[in-house]
Amino acid sequence: MITLTINGAAHEVHADPATPLLYVLRDELGLNGAKFGCGLGQCGACTVILDDRAVFSCLTPIGVLPGRRVRTIEGLGTAASPGPMQQAFITEQAAQCGYCIAGMIMRAQALLEQNPNADDAAIRAGMQPNLCRCGTQMRILRAVGRAAREMRARKQAGLPTTQEAAR
Ligand code: FES
Predict the structure, then answer these.
(1) Same-domain status, 125 and 108
(2) Which residue has the least CA distance to atom 4 on ligand 1?
């Protein structure tokens, strides 16, 4: 049995330590935001945040996770109450088919937590590992830029930048 801490909650999982986190999230825990795209670390559809860094959950075995903190898109907000990064993607209409979007949002969230002052060049470089096959990259970049401005403003006002932080 392996205990995983996901979005602030402990989950006991009965699975081989080599099982990819993505499979456990989707198949065992019903957290379907992270998507299976390539299974090879090449598309970013499965991106989650491990401690403070964006990782490919398709390449992350659950055996390395005890004692560490995983965050998924479900931890950033809800449909009724989206977090600031989710709201920025909605406002900029950054999703087309939507398959890549949860991974994009998680990479962007980690990027701005590490570098709240990220400029356009830093955002472009930071988002590089995640692919969108619909071609909405420009909207995605605009959404991350908008989120960067809004999250800086929230921080200055002493407001949380995720729902998880608000709990
Ligand atoms: Fe993990 Fe593509 S499914 S990087």
Answers:
(1) yes
(2) 41
